[in-house]
Amino acid sequence: MKTDTIVLGAGIVGTSIALNLALSGAKVTLIDRRGPGEETSYGNAGLVERASIYPVAFPHDLKAITDIVLKRNPAANYHWTALPVLARWMYAYWRASSPEGILHYARTIANLLALSLAEHERLAGAAGAMHYFREGGWLKLYRTEAGLDRERSEFPLARQYGLTPREITIEESLALEPHLRPIFRGAVLWSDPHSVSSPGGVTKAYAEYFRKLGGTIVQADARALAPIPGGWRAVTKDGGVDGANAVVALGPWAPDVLRSLGLRLPLAVKRGYHMHYAAGAGASLSRPVLDEEGGYVITPVEQGIRLTTGVEFARRDAHKTPVQLNWTEPLARELFPLGPRLESEPWMGSRPAFPDMLPVVGPAPGRPGLWLAIGHQHLGFTLGPVTGRLIAEMMSGATPFTDPTPFAATRFR
Asked: What is the pTM of this model?
């Protein structure tokens, strides 16, 4: 099979790239071992996090680090056996999480975040997926005054970038979400983000629109990519797909392909879990709610109330250890009347992350015709469509809407 561009990975990032390329007139083949939006893009909290000008940084406060090391923070867990492999990456992550590093992150990511919602709306409107989207932002709750103070410290930088965080009272919080229980000291409403009732559904809708435009979707395990004269070949068990260009958008599985091509980038994973619950009798939730010090998010999705955990530092393919889910579920039940679990096993996914918390978007160094779009960390669903636009503009030779240099893979040389 021949095509103009092969896109490996049908998560929100790869699907958005394929769709943007198809909209530009290219013939595109999208390849994944599963259906679109059935891996990491399925399991997130469903936020288009327009306001994420602050990264999910590694703490520099000694008490916070101690709580993580001693496993006293429900937002973080780790496998001892993974630490030797992750130590260098985690040190680089810690260094990038300095005050100067956070300012660099904010300056760099701002241009992508600024268009994140508009690019989702552009694709969702054409794909008939706007019914998944809802306004209302998300609510962050704090159990202590110290936690609320840390959140307040983010307001000046956020407002510098045009964002509108607003501290609200317990009474105002309960007016927005009447079925929460007032066990918290304060709250902040971030109204700029939107959320969706099914991140996997949105991705599938974009994929179906891509198909209607003439795009091809191949369900195959194509972790082998090889250069051929004038392009690239994705090898599958049924043969291969040849294209002048190839885009690797495989998220946590990208190293499986890149290593065979001699490309080694400092990509690690942050694993996370979720579980769906019925809501208690008469209870409802209208937006995502973060219990910051409880280390979890609850959000209404099509399957019920989804409880999403924080991060777990482990090898990507290590066995499940959903201890954070077991820890946070009682905390969530204190806050909201959750009913029974709706699944027998928790879902687990891996968020691909570089130590500087920024994605790699652009050409692969020294590999003509090969492009990368990986490492979006906690913002894959948010940045999928805007990444698709940026890659499509770069590949077509158009002037990109923002300088792609800060996202280049060569920054790790």
From this structure: 0.96
